[in-house]
Amino acid sequence: MGIDPIAEPPPVKPATATGGRSAAQVLEWSRGLVEPALRQAVERLSQPVRHIAGYHFGWWDAAGTEAEASGGKGIRPALALLCAQAVGAPAGVAVPAAVAVELVHNFSLLHDDVMDRDESRRHRLTAWRVFGVGEAILAGDAMVTLAVEVLNRAAPHPEGLPQGGATAAAELVRTLCDSVQTLVEGQMADLSFERRSGVGLSECLQMARNKTGALLAAACRLGAQAGGGSDDQVDALTAFGAQLGLAFQVNDDLLGIWGDPDTTGKADYSDLRNRKKSLPVAAALAAGTVASRRLEEWFASTTEPTAGDVELVAALIEEAGGRDWARAQLASLGSVAVGHLHRARPAAASAAELTVLVAMVTAAA
Asked: Residues of the chain with pLDDT > 90: what percent?
């Protein structure tokens, strides 16, 4: 299944007098390129699966009526497009890569919602709550296989991977599949942490690198590969994406505790209700304070948490330094990511817009 060539839409009006686009404008531009191709790919799924996928993406409601629900930020597709531009190619050559990473990301969300028993995402019921657990799992399975098919039929940039043709597509598929395996490893660790005591901060960091960092790294790598970047550029942009991915998870964990449900689309204190040992929690538990010991006792409990419980636990995490640690990590990871970006010698405009995305991801909750 191929993706038809798409004309790049007119550039979004610059956010500043110098011509730079804001993060919101970059993401809007990316959606304009990627969503038509994503819809085209999803149309190839069987009707029951397509129905669930379209609901999950926010394209229609549970009855199949057109809707305008949020489909998420779309940072992974934007990274793929910008990394192709960073190595000197037009963004359009990375559209199949962008579609593939967005399909994989949403495969993981469908499964994640089932595993965490989350009932809301993007301000409405999750797919498993509407269509059933088995159905949501199967829709996720269909998405990840569709992602491979999209890449397998992608035409490489004429100046892209030196092998060309089918061999080039195989290299893109290998990058994607490696990231899926790493993502699954991270998700397995995340699940095991909920049943274990004594989870260390270093373990949580490695879990986050795998669960979230791997796919953002793959988005950057795929974009650079599709655009014909040199080995050094591809490796530097991959490292950039990995650091940005870890920062993304740190910020997501902050939002999972202190985020506004009207913004996150999830229930209040959703991660604490699931007793997730997220990164701020792991940092707080490792601090060795009185608050840390009280947290350890609470996470060892199996009683159903009340609203008062989770509010108290959020305060204890902050008292033990978990929130401050996470904010400091965001600043450090952002700086390291930008260093890798510069090492890739990117085109100036793309470098500026990738840096804008770094600022968005590292804006602490």
From this structure: 73
pLDDT at 122: 85
pTM of the model: 0.89
Cβ–Cβ < 8 Å for 134, 210: no
CB contact set of 266 (below 8 Å; sequence gap of 6+) = 118, 120, 121, 256, 259
Name every residue whose Cβ is closer than 8 Å to that of residue 289 and which is 6 or more positions away in sequence.
Answer: 319, 320, 321
- Burial class of residue 39 (count of CB atoms within 10 Å of its CB; 0-12, 13-18, 19+): middle
Inter-axis angle of helices 307-319 and 290-300, nearest 10: 140
Which candidate, 165, 210, 204, 168, places its Cα nearest to that of 187?
210
Structural domains in the chain, CATH included, are: 23-361 (1.10.600.10)
Q: Is the pLDDT of residue 50 over 50?
A: yes
Report the greatest alpha carbon distance in the chain: 61
At 125 the three-state DSSP class reads strand
- Cβ count within 10 A of residue 129: 18
Average pLDDT over residues 50-70: 91
- Residue 124 host element (H or E): strand 124-125
- CB under 8 A, 24+ apart: contacts of 48-53: 48/135, 49/138, 49/139, 49/142, 51/131, 52/127, 52/131, 52/135, 52/136, 52/139, 53/106, 53/139, 53/142, 53/143
Q: What residue type is 231 in one-letter code?
A: D
Whole-angstrom distance, CA of residue 213 vs CA of residue 208:
7
Chain-centroid distance of CA 16 in Å reads: 27
What is the rounded CA–CA span in Å between residue 264 and residue 82? 25
List, in sequence order, the alpha helices (H) in the chain.
23-42, 47-57, 75-86, 95-116, 127-131, 133-152, 165-195, 201-208, 214-226, 231-258, 261-264, 270-273, 279-285, 290-300, 307-319, 322-343, 348-361
**Amino acid at residue number 29:** W
